Amino acid sequence: MRSATVFTAFTLLFLGCAISASAQEPSLAHKGRVVIPDSAIERPEDVGVRAHTPYQIFVLADREKFGAQPNGYALPEAVAAPNTPPFSGYGFETPASIACLYHLVTPVTGCNPNTFKTNPTGGSKAIGIVDAFDYPTAMADLNAFSKQFGLPAVTSTTFKVIFAGGTGGCAGTDPGNDPGWEGEQALDIEWAHAMAPKAKIFLVEAASSSFADLLVAEDCASKQVAAAGGGEISNSWGGSEFSTETTLDSHFKASKIVYFASTGDSAGTEWPSVSTSVVAVGGTTTSRVNSGPTFGNFIGEAAWEDGGGGLSTYEPRPSYQSSLPKATHRLVPDVSSDANPNTGVWVYDNNPTNGCCWYVFGGTSVASPSWAGIVNAAGHFAASSTAELTTIYAAYASATNYPADYNDITYGLCGFYDGNIAVAKWDPCTGIGSPKGYVGK
């Protein structure tokens, strides 16, 4: 449903050629299928009014061997040890494997999720997570995830759920549960915590998925993070651009906070990721060996074909993008990281509709909280998103710093029918690339 934008400097015209997802990835066909939750679907009447979640679920084809029920998407909690994530024979990402890939810890050859166990240990101050509806088992699920992967547990001191609304914006009432948004919240809190395990997390739940309610939650999260000394806020939600969007960008300008937003899971641009006051985070694919004695070893990183990006329709070109190709408006994404559900991440969610407990999630929803955690753990704590983006693009503009601080993604395409491809340096699929260590962030 999103309006597609084509950045002509990176347009590639394909004639008489159509490639299906299954044709591109035949080795994955027997392993499972991708499911789009209802919360991720944007309808025409939603544009400018209501947000959707940019995440997808990878459902294993042979999940019944783990005791999964046929009417859900999850693998159960009570699988017999050692058959708990990561499962032998699968290459889905763990906190440690992502940290290894992106040099957040001392990397090893292959960064194999089945064998590498060294997690990030940093983080301080606060990370805000803004989502819609209630997630009643949030703390319990986050601690189940943390226990499984060797991360520190959270407590009522280090993790807080807030209902947005009411007087002051942080005194709302329980908005009730939505299973799709609950999955989004599980993904967001677990992967922010995975990348910055010592940061305090505020999960701020909007009364609904309307932009009006989500922005009340955004303002509440800003208050909480600022009071904790500053930090980051991740927004894994968005929608097609609309003509009045720039009037709402002020909600992402609180002092001492850097805002992140997912660019979406289909061709084109979305708000709020296009806001000039937000770090726009796109998606990549992590490729791993899928057979033989080195199964699970990292091969390389490419653009994710479903990642959003391009030229904003309404947001002006910001000064921090002066080093990019000439354009009349804001270009997104700025940065990217793993998002393909076929190469997705483990998430724990005791979901009332989709089942309990272990899922493989993908989408740019993975990338936004991961980047918020990475920047938090970097410890620089920029005064604003603009200041953070200035640091990012300064590293990009440096011939020495760019290859040291970022992985330049030069292979793959996104928005096939828009003709966007990954090329050297910035492109509308992956921005300037994925992280390499904490410097330049």
Describe, in plain words, how this protein is organized in 3D:
The chain is α/β, with parallel strands linked by helices and 441 residues long. It has a single domain, classed as 3-Layer(aba) Sandwich (Rossmann fold), CATH 3.40.50. Strands 3, 4, 5, 6, 8, 10, 11 and 14 form an eight-stranded mixed β-sheet that branches. Strands 1-2-16-15 form a four-stranded antiparallel β-sheet. Strands 7-9 form a two-stranded antiparallel sheet. Helix 3 crosses helix 4 and helix 4 packs parallel to helix 6. The protein is globular, with a radius of gyration of 20 Å. The two termini are 33 Å apart. The N terminus is likely disordered.
Helix share, percent: 10-25%
Helix-strand makeup class: alpha/beta
The stretches of 5 or more residues where confidence is low (pLDDT under 50) are 1-29
If you average the pLDDT, what whole number results? 91
Key terms:
441 residues, alpha/beta, Rossmann fold, 8 helices, 20% helix, globular, disordered N terminus
